[in-house]
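Board notes, transcribed. Complex of a protein with FE2/S2 (inorganic) cluster.
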Amino acid sequence: MSNQERVLKFHIFRYNPQKQGDKPRMVTYEVTEAPGMTIFIALNDIREQQDPSLQFDFVCRAGICGSCAMVVNGQPTLACRTLTSKYEDGHIKLLPLPGFELIGDLSVNTGKFMRAMSERVESWIHDINSDEVNFEKLEERMDPDVADEIYELERCVECGCCVSACATKRMRPDFLSAVPFRM
Ligand code: FES
């Protein structure tokens, strides 16, 4: 092992609510750090080399889809955009985002919340000529001027980090949090 390499200790929340008798617990895994390693890369390493049952989500690996959000050392963030080198003592604690339904381990159902919130605030471009709400209908083409107008707001990747960091959301399940206000 070269001087630059170090062994990281990942303390990961494990719990499968679908498995009868399973209990929430923290499990520690050791991973040898590689240059440019992200939390996402380390998690893949753990799943491939040590424990194929570890559950976590990802799609794009580039900070675009928002699927890999989790709590890293107390802070909600994207695992694919977080370098392990940021954590000087080499201890990294991973928890699922609070405030969402737990699927298992680090995987949560943010989609259910986002859809319910969207339907509640009707976060779509309304047709001013009709009151009809039909989720099955093909969307109208968006006018380029409208697309320009909502561009900044549409950059939210719906990762759920802001929702999970919101104490009010945890006390009041009907609280919408910051998400709808970017729409
Ligand atoms: S995997 Fe898509 S944002 Fe991280």
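The mean pLDDT is 89. The beta strands are 7-14, 25-32, 69-72, 75-78, 91-95, 101-104, 107-109.
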